[in-house]
């Protein structure tokens, strides 16, 4: 019985995690909870460049995503691997609202003045007016990137604690301008590669529409990656005590 008691005690201690001292506790019944969440976001933001080990949040400069794929049916397919995003930690939070009544919901408006995305690409098919079949390094610079994100959470039990997981995630994305370069987009012909990249950038707004699923994944990995890590590590009562 004594050993059972000790075991239960150890599990209880292990499942109780204290927020880092630099985090402000946001009480669930506080009518100003959204302001509290925004303040915490500003506290966390400058720490993202080097990561926050105590919260299991890795460095987000660069933010690394293993792969993203575009598939336009039989006419077009593109794969981007080893994706590295620079500048995501310099985001500006425009709105952060949480609803805890009927549903647990986050609603976030965020924008990035500038993002640089490096990757290794492989493209095969027709894009815009171009018939492409190339692979190599890709470099994309994007300015004035805005995202509206919503996600609904559901409660579940973990180690006897109430946690929240987020499944239904939605992102609306807009991009101001972009400057793109695909190395070896037409093989080893340097002149054709330069001309092709010029055409791509002259029609960058049309291309952005094609690349939106990849960029949406990038922004989603950044925002929801942070949210999911925090909510997986800390219980609902740890994050939002009464």
From TrEMBL:
GO BP: circadian rhythm
InterPro entries: Haemolymph_juvenile_hormone-bd, To_sf
Domain of life: Eukaryota
Alphabetized UniProt keyword annotations: Biological rhythms, Signal
GO cellular component entries: extracellular space
Keyword Transmembrane attached: no
Residues annotated as signal peptide: 1-16
Family as reported in the entry's similarity comment: Belongs to the TO family.
PANTHER family cross-referenced by the UniProt entry: CIRCADIAN CLOCK-CONTROLLED PROTEIN-LIKE PROTEIN, PROTEIN TAKEOUT-LIKE PROTEIN
Name of the featured protein: Uncharacterized protein
Source species of the chain: Callosobruchus maculatus (Southern cowpea weevil)
